[in-house]
Amino acid sequence: MGNWRLPLEMCEAIIDAIPSSSDNATVEEQRTLCVCALTCQAWRGRAQRVLLEHPQLNSRRAVLLFVASIRRTKYQLASLVRTLALEGLQLKSIYSLLVESFPGLSALHLYGTALEVHSKILRTRFPFFAALSTLTLQHVRFNTPRALLNLVWACPNISVLKLLYPNTKGMSVSPASAALLVSTCAHLRVCRKLVSLRLELTVTAGVEILSLPGGVFGSALTELFLQYTPIPLSTLSWFSSDAPVAVNLSTFLGDTFSSLHTLKVQSGPTIEPERTFLALSTLAKGLVSRESIKTVVLEFDHIKHAHLDVGAPWFRRRRTAGHTEKARVSPYVESLRTLFPCLQILRVELVCMLERRTAGAWVDYVVSELNTKTNPPFLEVVDCKGNRLYPSNV
To answer: Tens of pLDDT along 353-387?
Structure first.
């Protein structure tokens, strides 16, 4: 059997197909890219580029080796980094990383990190944060409000902030401290580009965030997302008028976000009007002007709710009803029109990938539940990539 060799272009295409982003990659896939980089000189450049676009570091040793490799190449590799994920690291473990400059770094994901009092060192304008536009804090522990804000305010160009189940237990803010934080934000001229804020909270994680005045995140916010996870209480009791979320939302929203035009909430196990409307109603009560809201988005994770069998007879009957009862406008939609008089778009986002054979069934289910007829708000259904599924003729 004679010698044969794959074209280099085909090898590079295979390397490019290995997931490397923090959303999709596993530790095994990161190791695969490392092995590819060490295979031969021809593979090294492409494998190294793919690996360094989205590195994931989960130990102090990994951080030190990463920084050493950046310095050894005279910072040529630093320009390749686009997103960076740090998991389970203390702030003192990444000091060596903060003093480096990554001109292409646009997104930082911190998971399981603890930001303690000494995080005031973040008040120094490190070059590491200069280009960041997206900051994701997941299961991060804060013991003071300033520990959180020091990190957010350290990013001068931040436009998207995601607080996912933060550990804020015991964190409290007095009215005097709240006013001081808002004035400090204005004095430092920070968060001027922050337009999107995502809050994923539970009754045991992160509710205290809402005790902060919204002014600590600037005044340019246009999109607010709130996900509620009703553990151990029910969703309805969590959003009741005397619940912590309802009490704090008016403080958080206040009259700060005059540019806010989009509200996003996560739907329940199905498209449940009572559950979702109560969450939107609670949000609306905290707004000074409801007329500014033009778009309401329901994020629906249909894969998590697989008990909705799209092949079941009752589901098929719903699909038929969605086509034969188009004259009936959903009572839920009528309530939304009352709640937000200038509402133009009601969008449902199916957050997971759809199989072609079931996509139509899910779209018909949503349309049957949220029929808006021909008047605003106009119903839209999109997939996780923003591709429009309904109406298909637009």
So the answer is: 666 656 777 777 777 777 666 677 788 888 877 88
The CA distance from 320 to 209, in Å, is 44
What does the chain come to in residues? Answer: 394
Measured distance CA(320)–CA(313) in Å, rounded: 11
Torsion angle (degrees, nearest 10) of CA 242, 281, 164, 231: 50
pTM of this structure = 0.82
3-state per-residue secondary structure call for 272-341: CHHHHHHHHHHHHHCCCCHHHCCEEEEEECCCCCCCCCCCCHHHHHHHHHHHHCCCCCCHHHHHHHHHCC
Instruction: State residue 120's pLDDT score.
Output: 61
Q: Is the peptide bond before 232 cis (omega within 30 degrees of 0)?
A: yes
- C-beta separation of 135 from 108 below 8 A: yes
Tokens of 116: 């303690």
